[in-house]
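Example record for the data management plan.
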Amino acid sequence: MKYSEKNKPIICMMTQSTCYRQTQKMQVKGVLWHSTGANNPMLKRYVQPDDNAAYRNLMIKVIGKNAYRNDWNHTSVQAGLNAWIGKLADGSIAAVQTMPWDYRPWGCGSGSKGSCNNGWIQFEICEDGLNDREYFEKVYKEACELTAYLCKMYGIDPKGSVKYNGVTVPTILCHADSHKLGLGSNHGDVLHWFPKFGKNMDTVRADVAALMGGTDTFSPSSEAKNRDCPFLVKVTVKHLRIRTGAGTDTAWTGKYVPPGVYTIVEVKAGKGSEAGWGRLKSGAGWIALSYAKRV
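Corresponding structural encoding:
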């Protein structure tokens, strides 16, 4: 994986935007993809640092300067995303974080069943003319890398789903998907672009899972570890979900274990964790041992 706690995406918080100032925190359920619908692959069109930011000159050098001031870091823009993907000033492809990951984005609008804005981290991919395979493959890969990083951070199964407002929603989806589910406004992105190059949201989920190391396989020896129970594990990820059973196909309790050391009293194989699942001594539930280190 490209991104980790030691190698994070570029950060350029756009705190002057209305969304940043007026939104609220959310409980992260998944990741939702957008693309801009305009032929401009340059990040500077949408992303700019605050006018008085201490790092403004550096960010302008990296991202480029929007001479028209029609970027999204203004109170006049009634929308906001957690990140953007596109070209930096030097033409290279990168992801730029513009709001904290757990800030509710104003991205996909609402539908008859509600909105995926309530729980899904969202980012935009800057479109070009939709006919350049090299550009597409670069931004697609970057988007998969960013999504894998976020899934690892929040303990999300990239091929999983969650129940929201009575609807079964994929943990990874696009704006068009949210509309079909009654949880977003009527937009075609990213499905007006990806099929041109043989990609869709199913390939996205598979490619993200592959980057994470294959979340559909289980360790055949995980059951054998029970002979060593109880044992201690150290959790370093910030948002490791606690589930009611051993697997991402069991219900999420709605709670996380914060970083720290925990006692595991039972181990089982289950979907979404190669190292198996560990039952917490506290009785709170089960955690994926792939995101914990034995101590």
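Summary line stored alongside the record: Residues 214-224 have pLDDT under 50 and may be disordered.
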